[in-house]
């Protein structure tokens, strides 16, 4: 039997899944690593520790088996600098590192940020390596000038295993330096940053074979010269196709701690208000919006409204006892600022419309409704541009109950397909491996590896109720938006 390893390089851990040649999961392994957060807005990782974790995972899965390919699903927007000998000069500045926020503020004021979005599809946010590069140049000029190669974490791992410096389009798109029209590094932006194409990885397709594993690691990891390393892709792209959302007909939504809505469009689409990203991929363009406030807000409400010892199920039971629409109590879930759809780091949460007759149950329900209204709004701009999907395929810890799934169907007025597989990223990485080895001709083949758990259809009565509430939710959101900066300022002062 031959096997493919799909590796998901996450922010807190790397997970590997061993698949047999029929695409069946055989084994899995996981290794964690710390996030370095010593300074305000810093969120770094040590690339060497991640490489160690990846080696551990590969070794525990290879075990004298015939591994034909190792393929990747990776966290996006990280930035690492290497010197002329390709040794590390920086840690990995992850997507959660916000130290470039003043660079973004300035770029917004002088129009550069809007231009970057228009040319690359990368939303206006400090997570983008393009802004991190400006920040490093300004704050750490010595390191900036010593760096001879800039790359992200997946590129670093592939470099260590194969000696090749390559980046697939779906990851390159997340740097904010890839031109959406030409699908090459954007020369104008590179010169604005003060770098040339020579310091960036060579662009390849996600399903390209990068090469074989270097001799030293073949021995160490129990692999041989027939093990091919595949370029792989971003976790955003792979978790979308990994649930079978392979064209505009289906959207993919994952809501765990945070969340995201994505679809694979045939053409690139840029939003006038820069509400969603547009990243090229091997097949089509990934359009989507990441949201900060998913299960993390549910968790907050469970603890604060019920108590730290009550379970998620207790909270759901309480919320379920309240009527649809929580009798006009509206909750905005921006406890952690927000990315899509409002892209405002200063946004704050709110209950609006409280009366003396409102109950704890209604507060609980309005929290869940607010999280879903926000997801709906993040999807709304995409729906307006890419068209209404036939269904939404969902995964993640927040969407595991019938109650939440039905609410999604009622707010979206669409069928909601709960997917069985929560490992879409490694599954799709494995599929890229199959494509690279010539075993699967096109993307549609991925559907046979995915399975649906249950479909939820909208309840027409509830749909009507939610359609009355949504415009009010938005109106309040617009009214509150102008106070967020002042609120954030006040909160910092009063700490
Ligand atoms: P991640 O992979 O992002 O860490 P998961 O998909 O495991 O997240 O989901 C974890 C989140 O799901 C937590 O924020 C938690 O509060 C939330 N959660 C856990 N159980 C439930 C539940 N029954 N209903 C809604 N949310 C839940």
Structural features, described:
Helix content is 39%, strand content 21%. The protein is of the alpha/beta class and 495 residues long. It has two domains: 2-236, ATPase, nucleotide binding domain (Nucleotidyltransferase, domain 5, 2-Layer Sandwich); 244-420 and 459-495, ATPase, nucleotide binding domain (Nucleotidyltransferase, domain 5, 2-Layer Sandwich), CATH 3.30.420. Strands 1, 2, 3, 5, 11, 12 and 13 form a seven-stranded mixed sheet that branches. The chain has a seven-stranded mixed sheet with strand order 16-17-15-14-20-21-22, with helices on both faces. The model has no long low-confidence stretch (mean pLDDT 96). The structure holds adenosine-5'-diphosphate. Residues 256-257, 295-296, 298-299, 312, 316, 396-398, 400-401, 404 line the site of adenosine-5'-diphosphate. Adenosine-5'-diphosphate is lined by residues 256-257, 295-296, 298-299, 312, 316, 396-398, 400-401, 404. InterPro entries: ATPase_NBD, Carb_kinase_FGGY, Carb_kinase_FGGY_CS, FGGY_C, FGGY_Carb_Kinase, FGGY_N. This is Gluconate kinase. Keywords: Kinase, Transferase.
């Amino acid at each position: 039997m031959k096997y493919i390893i799909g590796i998901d390089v996450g922010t807190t851990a790397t997970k590997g899944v061993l698949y047999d040649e029929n695409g069946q999961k055989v084994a899995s392994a996981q290794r964690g690593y710390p996030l370095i957060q010593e300074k305000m807005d810093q969120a770094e990782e040590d690339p060497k520790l991640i490489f160690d974790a990846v080696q551990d995972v590969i070794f525990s899965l290879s075990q004298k088996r015939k591994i034909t390919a190792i393929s990747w699903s990776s966290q996006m927007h990280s930035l690492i600098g290497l010197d002329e000998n390709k040794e590390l000069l920086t840690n990995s500045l992850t997507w959660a590192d916000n130290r470039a926020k003043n660079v973004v503020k300035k770029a917004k004021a002088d129009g550069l940020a809007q231009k970057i979005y228009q040319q690359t599809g990368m939303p206006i946010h400090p997570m983008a390596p393009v802004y991190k590069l400006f920040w490093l140049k300004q704050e750490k000029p010595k390191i900036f000038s010593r760096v001879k190669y800039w790359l992200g974490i997946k590129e670093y791992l592939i470099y260590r295993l194969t000696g090749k410096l390559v980046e697939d389009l779906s990851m390159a798109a997340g740097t904010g330096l890839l031109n959406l029209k030409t699908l090459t590094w954007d020369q104008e932006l590179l010169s604005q940053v003060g770098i040339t194409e020579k310091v960036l990885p060579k662009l390849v397709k996600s399903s390209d074979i990068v090469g074989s594993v270097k001799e030293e690691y073949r021995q160490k990891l129990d692999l041989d010269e027939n093990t091919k390393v595949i370029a792989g892709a971003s976790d955003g792209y792979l978790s979308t196709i990994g649930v079978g959302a392979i064209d505009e007909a289906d959207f993919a939504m994952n809501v765990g701690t945070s969340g995201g809505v994505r679809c694979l469009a045939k053409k690139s689409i840029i939003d006038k208000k820069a509400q969603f990203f547009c990243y090229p991929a091997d097949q089509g363009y990934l359009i989507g919006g990441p949201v900060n406030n998913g299960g993390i807000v549910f968790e907050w409400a469970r603890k604060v409204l019920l108590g730290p010892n009550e379970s998620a199920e207790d909270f759901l039971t309480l919320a379920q006892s309240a009527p649809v629409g929580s009798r006009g109590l509206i909750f905005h879930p921006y406890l952690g600022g927000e990315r899509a759809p409002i892209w405002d780091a200063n946004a704050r949460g709110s209950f609006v419309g409280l009366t003396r007759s409102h109950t704890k149950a209604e507060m609980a329900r309005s929290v869940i409704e607010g999280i879903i209204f926000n997801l709906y709004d993040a999807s709304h701009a995409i729906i307006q541009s890419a068209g209404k999907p036939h269904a939404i395929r969902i995964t993640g810890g927040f969407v595991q109950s019938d109650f939440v799934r039905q609410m999604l169907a009622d707010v979206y007025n669409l069928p909601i397909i709960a997917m069985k597989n929560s490992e879409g990223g490694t599954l799709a990485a494995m599929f890229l491996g199959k494509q690279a080895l010539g075993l699967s001709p096109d993307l549609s083949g991925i559907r046979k590896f995915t399975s649906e758990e249950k479909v939820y259809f909208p309840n027409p009565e509830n749909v009507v109720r939610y359609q009355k509430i949504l415009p009010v939710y938005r109106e309040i959101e617009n009214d509150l938006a102008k106070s967020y900066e002042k609120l954030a300022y006040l909160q910092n002062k009063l700490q």
